[in-house]
Amino acid sequence: MINTWLPYILAGIAVGGQYALIAIGYTMVYGILRLINFAHGDVFMWAGLIMVYLVTILPIWASIIVVIIFAILLGTSIEKVAYRPLRSAPRMSIMISAIGVSYLLQNFALYITGGLTKTYPTIKWLQKSVKIGSASTKMVTVITPILTIVLVVLLVLLIQKTKIGMAMRAVSRDFETSSLMGIDINRVITVTFVIGCGLAAIGSVLYFSNYTGIQPMSGAMPGLKAFVAAVFGGIGSVPGAVVGAFIIGVCENLIKGAGWTTFSDAFTFVLLIIILMVKPTGLFGEKNIDKV
Amino acid sequence: MAEKKDNREVVLRLSDITMQFGGVVAVDNLNLDVHKNEIVGLIGPNGAGKTTAFNCITGVYEPTNGAVEINGEVVIENYPQGKMKDAYKGKNQGKYTKALTMLPDKVTKLGVARTFQNIRLFKGMTVLENVMVAMHMNQSESVFGATFRSKKAREEEKTMREEAMELLKKVDLYENRNDMATSLPYGKQRHLEIARALATHPSILLLDEPAAGMNPQESDDLMKFIGRIRDEFDLSILMIEHHMQVIMGICEHIYVLNYGGQIADGTPEEIQANSAVIEAYLGGDE
Amino acid sequence: MENTLSKKTKNVLTVVAIALFLILVYIGDITISPGSSWKMMITVIEKGSIFALVAASMNLLNGFTGLFSLGQAGFMLIGAYTYAIFTIPAKSHNAVYQYFDGGLIKWSLVEILEDKIGIVGHYIGMLIPMIGAGLLVAVIAFLIGIPVLRLKSDYLAIATLGFAEILRAFFQWNTLGPVTNGSNVLRKYATYDNAIFPVVVSGICIAIILLLINSTYGRAFRAIRDDEIAAEAMGVNLFKHKEMSFVISSFFAGISGALLAMFQTTINATPFNTVMTYEILLIVVIGGIGSITGSIIGAFLFTAASEWWLRGLDAGSWLGINSSLMRPGFRKVVFAILIMLVVLFYAQGIMGSREFSWDSFLAWIKGRPEAIKTWPARRKAKAAAKKEARATKAAARAKAKAAKDEGEAKKASGEKLFTALPVSDEVMVFGKEGK
After folding, report:
1. Does the CB of C363 have a partner CB in chain A at under 8 Å?
2. A135: left (phi over 0), alpha (psi -120 to 50) or beta
3. What's C5's DSSP letter?
4. Paired residues of B253 in beta bridges
């Protein structure tokens, strides 16, 4: 029994870790800007795509570093160009801007790739075979959850212990008051995007190592799922997003294991809707009361 | 607290209303009566829980404990449940056993209309449309009939429009009927909010700081205006206000809140002489 | 206010304008030969009117009720499938459902009615499944709305997007193959034979949406958009009205889905994805959130630009400009950048929240001679301002060019990679222009 399900659980934990790395970007940006960054999944896709091109000129380790830097630059420029000018505009406008950026990034990728699926480079070390119990799996499956947890612990320490972390918490509590208290809002937001996009880039290396191909729409689905994970865990909460991502990853793979592959994507949204109905604040979220 | 003597029937009664957010008790055991055609004032320093009390009456919040009676019928009632059972800090736990809730639009249908402290007009609509929205709930044509302009829909639209015009004439906004609501000067926006509330055909009107930001002349006019609409529309009025001039000049009975709790109630003269009230407003000895 | 038109004249003008347009479309579709480049215009009119309808339906939700819903593509999908499934001729079933033993439904409504009452039956046989498609979508939207419409704006966006994805998976599910043909295309179903059909159907539907918006219910919708709490305090039942708006909007999205199926002649669930919803949303934004006229103009501009005017960008030459950059996909990139410019610098869109009226239209026309007269002066002023801006920008541009040259040089040294560089370049450049 356990032997038949173990591979699915392992795969689920791995993909959950990858979702977690994307979900952190969503949850932190939402926590601070109250914006669903629809373009985040596309930044993730672009990180993967750039990797495909980079490995032709750079060694793998250098490519990974450049990919992370690239994703950070892309994410922060998006914030500067598309979100910052609209900060005082209605919520809907900034959300539309995010959708516009997503549309642009996808179309640009479509242009660059010519609509073809690109083969993601094989990182030998990540593809190595490992045996866990009776199941044999790839190194990436083992590495992902460990790396994810290490990074999340570091991030939580950053948020809890450092000055910039404190500023982030303050801004997420009350945007206006924090700016009146002399916190440099722009810096906090930039740091948020740096962290979110950097983690998404790392996630992209792990995620695409599991799949052979990458194409312009590759970011959309993992992006949406990561967002659901963030909502599930309680949007704005980093540990919540991680827990949510692992749960979604495992459930999704168990559903695949049960032979319902068509509905493995749909499941995520069913879960989202159930969560929003039963506990809209998610597992770790706080209740917001509207002022009248 | 002295039992108030009034032979008129009670149209709005709050019994032991308590509202607790997490660990904070915003309204603590509020008991309040509004009689027919009475103008009642609700005063207290900032953060005393006045607006929260309004929100409990109008169904925006569910009170944690207590009951609201409108025209002799209990329409909202609640008691601490779930986690709140242990966290509850107020009084009278166990006195109420029913959980009756009502959405704000239903409360409005029962004849309780309100205005807002921070003006909430419909920004994308004209003055006339703002008033007509408030009449929407009283029309009976289906969405299908209204879309295809059935005879009934056309008639109802016509009556609605005429009635809205009448109302605007009464509040001196007729000239502005086709202006965007947000283009009106501040004082007129306050009047429009009241007109809009009147358009729902209320029997009880809740006014949340109607004189906020007005100069003495304007608040004097407002005072007369409130008295006038009370008579003309046969209203009972509960109002929150900081302008003592307005409150003392127009209210027959006043309730005073501080830190959520009810510290005094009585006629304007009694309140002015009440030491607890003076202390709340001017600060104690410490 | 100088001489505004009487109501009667306006009505006459409207009727004449509509009739003239319909006649032109009808004759145009008959007379223009398929090889002519003007045929493209007919295609734009067909597709534009279909997208105008779905954009108007989305605007009813987003612009007039303030519900940020992103489920439109999913609803179009149901509409398209419902229509197609009931109009595939009996003799074609085996070919279409080749992997599913000819499918479950072995008849076509169009054929049945055509046999009974002739050519009128043919059209009734098309209209019934089309309206049925709308009704089915409305029922599904009603059910989806019960949980989803209680959510706050941004959660609503994600939940509706999620439902659209679930629907897409559902329609591609192999078990439903005998009805939906699984992940294979549906084809050979009945289609219209003149462009006037989608124009008339969309026109009627949009007119109904306009009537709704201008009714007392439309006023309640707008009240919800402007201030939910105040609307509720004025006795507007939030849930009931949101549900109403959602269901009606979805009904029309379903109809437009059916029209799209007819237009495309084959359908498959795959393209009804988030990108399609985004495109519909962007049409609404270009036209102006809260203006149905805007949605119509936006839809035609969007289709004309993407299907017709910017075609050359994909083929290597456009307006006489030739460039190796212009290869398939370039059009969409240019397009996406244009849209971002609108979103960032022209957030009101073309119409803002205004609607077309003969008075303002005539006033606009009357204003033209004056505008043309003062045009040289204005142009001069503009040019001067531009020159100044150009001077300040020159330095920045030189820098950008240096970076580009460097990229070019690397490209020449055998690297394909640097075709990707313009992404940051482009973004930076228009970021600076904005300031």
Report:
1. no
2. beta
3. P
4. B40
Q: Which residues contact A48 (CB under 8 A, 6 or more apart)?
A: A120, A204, A205, A207, A208, A214, A218, A219
B193 shares a domain with B216: no
Asked whether residue C68 is domain-assigned, the answer is yes
**Could you give the C-alpha distances from B156 to B45, B109, B170, in angstroms and in order?**
45, 18, 21
Q: Considering the domain boundaries, does residue C369 fall inside one?
A: no
Is the full-model pTM beyond 0.95? Answer: no
Can you give the pLDDT at residue A200?
94
B121 pLDDT higher than 50: yes
Give residue for tokens 């089915």. Answer: C136
Same domain, yes or no, for B7 and B86?
yes
Asked if B40 and B61 sit in the same domain, the reply is yes
The per-residue pLDDT for range C267-294, each reduced to its tens digit, is 998 889 888 999 999 999 999 998 999 9
Interface of B with C in 220-279 (CB under 8 A): none
Backbone torsion region of residue B72, taken as left when φ is above 0, otherwise alpha when ψ lies between -120 and 50, otherwise beta: left
Beta-ladder partners of A119: A213
Rounded Cα distance between B218 and A58, Å, is: 75
Query: Which residues make Cβ contacts (< 8 Å) with residue B244, sequence separation at least 6?
Result: B43
Q: Per-residue pLDDT for C415 more than 60?
A: no
Name the residue range of residue B176's domain: 121-200
| Amino acid occupying residue C157 | A
Q: What is the DSSP string of C179-232?
A: HH-TTSPEES----SSTHHHHHHHHHHHHHHHHHHTSHHHHHHHHHHH-HHHHH
Residues 6 or more apart from A79 whose CB is under 8 A from it?
Answer: A189, A190, A193
- Token readout for A247 is 């749960």
Q: Which domain holds residue A152?
A: 23-219
Residue pair A18/A248 in contact (Cβ under 8 Å)? The answer is no
* The pLDDT value given to residue C1: 44
Contact (CB<8Å) A100/C339 = yes
d(C-alpha B259, C-alpha B46), whole Å: 9
| Distance of alpha carbon A30 from alpha carbon A27, whole angstroms | 5
Q: Do the chains contact at A95 and C157, CB–CB below 8 Å?
A: yes
User: Are B18 and B75 within one domain?
Assistant: yes
Distance of CA B140 to the CA centre of its chain: 26
DSSP β-bridge partners for residue A63: none
Spatial separation of the C-alpha atoms in residues C435 and C430, rounded to whole Å: 9
Nearest CB neighbour to A289, from listed B21, B51, B116: B21
Query: One-letter amino acid identity for A63?
Result: S
C124 and C87 in a common domain: yes
Q: What is the tally of structural domains in chain A?
A: 1
Neighbours of C153 (CB within 10 A): 16
Are C90 and C138 members of one domain?
yes
CB contact A101 to C (< 8 Å): yes
Residue pair C213/C64 in contact by the 8 Å Cβ criterion:
yes
Predicted pLDDT at C3 = 56
- Assess A36–C contact: CB distance below 8 Å, yes or no: yes
Q: Measured between CB atoms, does C406 come within 8 Å of chain B? A: no
How do residues A198-219 score in pLDDT, each as one tens digit? Answer: 999 999 999 998 887 888 888 8
The contacts found for B279-282 with CB under 8 angstroms, 24 or more apart, are B280/B44, B280/B45, B280/B256, B281/B45
Instruction: Tell me, yes or no, if B60 comes closer than 8 A to chain A by beta carbon.
Output: yes
Mean pLDDT across C46-66: 94
Residue from B119, B283, B126 nearest B210 by CA: B119
* Burial of residue A284 (number of CB atoms within 10 Å: 0-12, 13-18, 19+): middle
CB pairs under 8 A between A and C: 154
Q: Domain residues for C382?
A: 374-434
Element (H, E) at B95: none
Residues C408, C294, single domain; the answer is: no
Can you tell me the distance from the alpha carbon of C273 to that of B256, in angstroms, rounded to the nearest whole number? Answer: 59
